[in-house]
Every structure is written in structure tokens, then in C-alpha cells.
């Protein structure tokens, strides 16, 4: 399951989707908006995406993970729009028979998403704003 | 003979140009690198971005890929999902 959404991420629904009779391990990674960046207080994050390509790049990553690990089910949900501190920006869920595969696949998916998927976030501070990673 | 191509802009590239889409008149047989050269000339602040990739029809493109007037082209500044 791959979703790009402006709605809050429903962790319980994702967990239910991931559960199966064969899954002995279920890894869930949540990326959450924290209240500071390098000690600068963050007011909110603004996420945007090139939707069609974000979906297709996330699908590529899921397909690669499928080839490398025996994944039973996966969920990739990324949020768009304005998010306040404490809100979940991304959920990666991987269900496998054994835990090592679930840990590794989950980490691979989130790490690769951060490198290749056309989604951008702007950090908005009380005294300014910054597109993350944009400048050298 | 210039054909305009349409370029989608996101994130910092939209902020710097003040537009979410641009029509750029490129020459016949123009490549991704030619388009980038033109954009850097028209919008010098783009040079301050750490990296600028181009997507053609939803796929990352090499710099020598030739552009067509029907292609969906997008500028991809450094991504920051997650």
C-alpha cells in the first residue's frame, strides 16, 4: 500500500492492514514533526510533493525492497500539507516472517525515500523559513 | 525555431521564480542541460540551490536527454521527504 495524503495518518488502520497469519514480525517506523531544528524552535512544517512521481518513486523503492527481503505486506504513507509538532509525517510498515528482514527492509525504505522521492518540506520558524536541504 | 516546453516547479524553485509552472522557449532538439542553462540565465538565484535535477514524464532524466514539446518536465530541487 502506497499513499500520499493530506489527511492525518491512521496508524491503527495501517497496523491492521499489515497483520497476517504468516507475519511474525511487524516493523513500524513513524517520522514525526519535532519542535526544533538545530535548537531553533519549529512552528510547523509544510510538505509538498510532485504527486505522480512521488508515488512512482515510492513504488520503485517498495519493489526493490520486495526483491531483497521476503516481505509479506508493506505500507508507505506520506503526508502532505501543513503539519504541526507531534504530527506524523510518514509511516513505513513492513511485515515479514522474522524480525531481521522487517527491520532491514523498513530502514531501507525510509532511508531511500529521503534520497529519491520528490517530496519537499519547508521548516517554518517564528522568525523565518527554510526549504530543508536546498542550500549547500 | 523555438518550441516552448512547460516546466513544473516545486519547493524552493517555485519560491525563487514566483511561479509554479513556466513556459520556456527552447530550440529544436534541446536537451535537459540546455533547458537548465536557460533557466539559470533567466533566474540567477537558481544557482544558489545545492542541486537541480530534471524529471521528464515523471522519471529522473539524464542531462543529455532531448526534450519534446509534449513532455511533462519538472525541476527537482534537493528532496526532503520523511
UniProtKB/TrEMBL annotation, chain A:
<dbReference type="InterPro" id="IPR003448">
    <property type="entry name" value="Mopterin_biosynth_MoaE"/>
</dbReference>
<dbReference type="InterPro" id="IPR036563">
    <property type="entry name" value="MoaE_sf"/>
</dbReference>
<dbReference type="GO" id="GO:0030366">
    <property type="term" value="F:molybdopterin synthase activity"/>
</dbReference>
<comment type="similarity">
    <text>Belongs to the MoaE family.</text>
</comment>
<dbReference type="GO" id="GO:0006777">
    <property type="term" value="P:Mo-molybdopterin cofactor biosynthetic process"/>
</dbReference>
<dbReference type="Pfam" id="PF02391">
    <property type="entry name" value="MoaE"/>
</dbReference>
<protein>
    <recommendedName>
        <fullName>Molybdopterin synthase catalytic subunit</fullName>
        <ecNumber>2.8.1.12</ecNumber>
    </recommendedName>
</protein>
<comment type="subunit">
    <text>Heterotetramer of 2 MoaD subunits and 2 MoaE subunits. Also stable as homodimer. The enzyme changes between these two forms during catalysis.</text>
</comment>
<comment type="pathway">
    <text>Cofactor biosynthesis; molybdopterin biosynthesis.</text>
</comment>
<keyword id="KW-0501">Molybdenum cofactor biosynthesis</keyword>
UniProtKB/TrEMBL annotation, chain B:
<dbReference type="GO" id="GO:1990133">
    <property type="term" value="C:molybdopterin adenylyltransferase complex"/>
</dbReference>
<keyword id="KW-0547">Nucleotide-binding</keyword>
<dbReference type="GO" id="GO:0000166">
    <property type="term" value="F:nucleotide binding"/>
</dbReference>
<dbReference type="Pfam" id="PF02597">
    <property type="entry name" value="ThiS"/>
</dbReference>
<comment type="similarity">
    <text>Belongs to the MoaD family.</text>
</comment>
<dbReference type="InterPro" id="IPR016155">
    <property type="entry name" value="Mopterin_synth/thiamin_S_b"/>
</dbReference>
<dbReference type="InterPro" id="IPR044672">
    <property type="entry name" value="MOCS2A"/>
</dbReference>
<dbReference type="GO" id="GO:0006777">
    <property type="term" value="P:Mo-molybdopterin cofactor biosynthetic process"/>
</dbReference>
<dbReference type="InterPro" id="IPR003749">
    <property type="entry name" value="ThiS/MoaD-like"/>
</dbReference>
<dbReference type="InterPro" id="IPR012675">
    <property type="entry name" value="Beta-grasp_dom_sf"/>
</dbReference>
<protein>
    <recommendedName>
        <fullName>Molybdopterin synthase sulfur carrier subunit</fullName>
    </recommendedName>
</protein>
Amino acid at each position: 500500500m502506497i499513499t500520499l495524503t493530506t489527511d492525518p495518518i491512521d496508524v491503527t488502520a495501517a497496523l491492521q492492514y499489515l497483520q497476517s497469519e504468516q507475519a511474525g514480525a511487524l516493523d513500524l517506523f513513524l517520522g514525526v514533526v519535532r519542535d526544533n531544528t538545530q535548537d531553533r524552535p519549529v512552528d510547523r512544517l509544510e510538505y509538498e510533493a510532485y504527486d505522480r512521481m512521488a508515488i512512482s518513486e515510492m513504488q520503485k523503492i517498495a519493489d526493490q525492497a520486495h526483491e531483497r527481503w521476503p516481505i509479506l505486506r508493506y505500507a508507505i504513507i506520506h503526508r502532505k500539507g501543513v503539519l504541526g509538532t507531534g504530527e506524523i509525517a510518514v509511516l513505513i510498515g513492513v511485515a515479514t516472517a522474522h524480525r531481521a528482514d522487517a527491520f532491514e527492509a523498513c530502514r531501507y525504505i525510509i532511508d531511500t525515500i529521503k534520497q529519491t522521492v520528490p517530496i519537499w518540506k519547508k521548516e517554518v520558524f517564528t522568525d523565518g523559513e527554510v526549504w530543508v536541504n536546498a542550500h549547500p | 525555431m523555438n518550441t516552448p516546453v512547460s516546466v513544473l516547479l516545486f519547493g524552493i524553485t517555485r519560491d525563487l521564480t514566483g511561479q509554479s509552472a513556466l513556459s520556456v522557449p527552447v530550440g529544436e532538439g534541446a536537451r535537459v542541460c540546455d533547458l537548465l542553462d536557460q533557466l539559470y540565465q533567466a533566474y540567477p538565484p537558481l544557482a544558489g540551490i545545492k542541486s537541480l535535477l530534471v524529471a521528464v514524464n515523471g522519471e529522473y532524466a539524464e542531462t543529455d536527454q532531448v526534450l519534446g514539446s509534449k513532455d511533462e518536465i519538472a525541476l527537482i530541487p534537493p528532496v526532503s521527504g520523511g
